[in-house]
Write a structure and sequence with these properties.
Elements: H1 2-15, E1 37-43, E2 48-49, E3 52-55, E4 71-73, E5 78-82, E6 103-107, E7 112-113, E8 117-118, E9 123-127, E10 136-137, E11 140-141, E12 143-145, H2 147-150
Parallel strand pairs: 1-12
Antiparallel strand pairs: 1-5, 2-7, 3-6, 4-5, 6-9, 7-8, 10-11
């Protein structure tokens, strides 16, 4: 029974990414009021600098060539994506797709954790969105990628 519920939610998530509705037709252009920096992401185990953060559009938890990587803002300790990275994705709306796709942080050897120092063993952290996930702050959808959010990988 549990597998059926999980399967139902996966199908619902994939179906929600195509087409548009009048209620949720917010596209990239309408979020660009202050900046072209969107989908602000923080990688925290102590702030981690040097990670590769990407949105996994097809849920395989591996970065494919069409999946964009975030830029790092070391001054503000944030990662962000730019609007132009999504221009080639068909039927893209920021609310329907990216808020319902995982963000993956690949932390390589040599990255820096503000609490533990240099990373000596590579690992990944995951953020799995849920309906209504992420706070909207000045038109930006934010998420934290942490060891705690990674615990949902098994589900």
């Amino acid at each position: 029974m549990e597998e059926l519920v999980i399967l139902f939610f996966i199908i619902l998530i994939f179906a929600s990414c195509s087409g548009s509705s009048s209620k949720d037709s917010l596209g990239l252009n309408s979020l660009s009021g202050l900046s072209n920096q969107i989908l602000i992401t923080k990688v925290i185990d102590g702030y981690i600098s040097g990670a590769n953060v990407f949105i996994d559009l097809n849920w395989n938890l591996t970065q494919d060539s069409t999946e964009p990587s975030a830029y790092e803002d070391t001054d503000n300790q944030l990662y962000y994506f730019e609007e132009s990275q999504f221009s080639g994705i068909e039927n893209w709306t920021i609310l329907k797709c990216s808020q319902r796709r995982p963000r993956v942080a690949e932390i390589p050897v040599g990255a820096y954790d503000s609490e533990r120092g240099e990373v000596t063993s590579a690992y990944k952290l995951y953020y799995f969105p849920y309906f209504g996930a992420g706070s909207v702050d000045q038109g930006e959808l934010r998420a934290n990628v942490t060891p705690l959010t990674s615990l949902f990988l098994g589900y």
